[in-house]
Amino acid sequence: MEITWATSTGSGKRIPLDLYPDPGLGSVRKRDIRDQDGVIYADILRGDELHHAIADQQPLYVLHSETCHARRPPNPKPAHIRLDPPRKVKRQWRYR
Q1: What is the distance between the alpha carbons of residues 7 and 12, in angstroms, rounded to a whole number?
Q2: 45, 29 in Cβ contact below 8 A?
Q3: Bridge partners of 1?
Q4: Is the dihedral of CA 81, 84, 86, 92 positive or negative?
Q5: Does the predicted model carry a pTM greater than 0.90?
Q6: Where do runs of H (alpha helix) occur along 33-84?
Q7: Where is this region: Disordered (predicted)?
Q8: For residue 56, which of 26, 43, 64, 71 sits 20 to 30 Å off, Cα-Cα?
Q9: CA 71: distance to chain centroid?
């Protein structure tokens, strides 16, 4: 999946975002502010800020970590299934 990068205004860390805004799942607002290096800044919205941005129909982006399938197991174990740990096998040495 294609991603874009932005710098968080809160922490200053680079965050990966999905390439296109998603009005249903998005929680990150990109700012049009760019510095001399071309860095794009973004705000991660929570609480009332997020509700106001949704009400104003602002384009909100999704953090790529929420939609990425690269590191998720292809078939996760259901919560109601318990796997027994493997038993240790004692080795018996035989001399001939």
Answers
A1: 6
A2: yes
A3: none
A4: negative
A5: no
A6: 47-55, 64-67
A7: 71-96
A8: 64
A9: 11
